[in-house]
Design goal:
Elements: H1 15-37, H2 42-49, E1 55-59, E2 62-65, H3 66-83, H4 90-114, H5 120-133, H6 138-147, H7 152-176, H8 181-194, E3 200-209, H9 216-234, H10 239-246, E4 257-262, H11 268-273, E5 287-288, E6 292-302, E7 308-319, H12 327-343, H13 348-355, E8 366-370, H14 377-384, E9 395-397, E10 400-413, H15 416-446, E11 449-451
Antiparallel strand pairs: 1-2, 1-11, 3-4, 3-6, 5-6, 7-8, 7-10, 9-10
Helix pairs in contact: 1-3, 1-5, 1-7, 4-7, 7-15, 8-15, 9-10
Amino acid sequence: MTEFLADGVARARDASRVACAVALCLCAAAGQAQTATAPSSGGRAAAVAGNADFIVVVVNQELVTNAELQGRLVRIREEAERNKTALPPAADLRKQVLDALIDERVQITNARETGPKIDEAELDRAVMNVAVQNQMTMPQLRARLQQQGLAYGTFRNNVRDQLLTERVREREVNQRIRVGSDEVDALIEKRRVAAGMTPQVNMAQILVTVPEGATVEQVAERRARAEAALARVKAGESFEAVAREISEDGNKAQGGVIGLRPVDRLPDLFVEFVRNMKPGDVGSALLRSGAGFHAIKLVERNNGAAFTVQQTRARHILLRVSPQLTAGAAGQRLIEFKRQIQGGAKTFEQLARDNSEDGSAAQGGDLGWTAAGTFVPEFEVAMNALPLNGLSEPLVSRFGVHLIQVMERRQVALDLKQQREQARNILREQRFEEAYLDWLRDLRGRAYVEMREAPL
């Protein structure tokens, strides 16, 4: 497998949120700058021109200015107009937007105080990805920011804050979410029922019957006989052999094995008796039923039709960044490779063999079948967004710049352990929003927030 595989999957869960946050940085930063510097024409200028800039609210050590607030309102109104969506009354909209800006500042200041350090190389990659996603080179990005009146250093710090805030949010919110094993089991069972999947079990039994109306002495004698049979099994004798000798049920010739049956067609007391047993286990005590005394062995458990997960087979061309080959130049080379592939001049496999600086080059860039969490997050997000045979735009990761193609996708059955992990993740995602809002309320409650009046 190639060396750019993830060295851990802890960050893969928040990859899409981080990617979205970084991708939005350019638009958000540009909007702020345009609010302050846009020429006095059109709806935007009219919306902002009548409002002098002043401090609206102080949040810890951060300021929210009127220019920023009005710029956010303008962009929301423009978006609503494009999409023909209704907005709340002006006063309500202003309050909602101001609350959102306060929440952002609260999270940013908390992240700066408690978050991990974002190293410069990671920040470089994030900024480069913003440029690539907007189909720009780095010089073009710098020129665009300059046109919009935003210093490159300020933009870079905005990206850093986005990454840091998202990292801290995931850490803090996930610590608040608790998922119990019983909840995981309940969700798996609910999904099986909804999908028409019926768990099955196969048991073997040694049955010593108790006649209807038996006396106390007869019951005691029968119990003793069943306990003696169970003791022989515990001492090492074959369960099946003892069943053939002792059992009084119709399956004694098969060693007491009753065969694989759906759990909804078995008595509840038997299903409950074997619930926590593993295949091959023999119950430590006898089971009493209306028929008599049973020694039970769990032969097999089938949890119904297995759930499936998507696997992807992709290939890539990797160009490593160096003083001789900048990320921008590598991106331009990969754009040319993409044109050659789409035009039929060369194949992906040929270009990968000749140019890729990765261990997969000899296989034409083929990375084999992989499931979620295998690759570094930025690579995986881009790969998952591609259709079959689709080619990505150049993608920057900490290993260099990639051109990706998805070759195949397939569904693979999950075993019980994988099903439990999937169910746990589903429950965590379902509770994330509520936990996030609780965490944000706590942050707001501890934050210093001072509202300012507009100057006269």
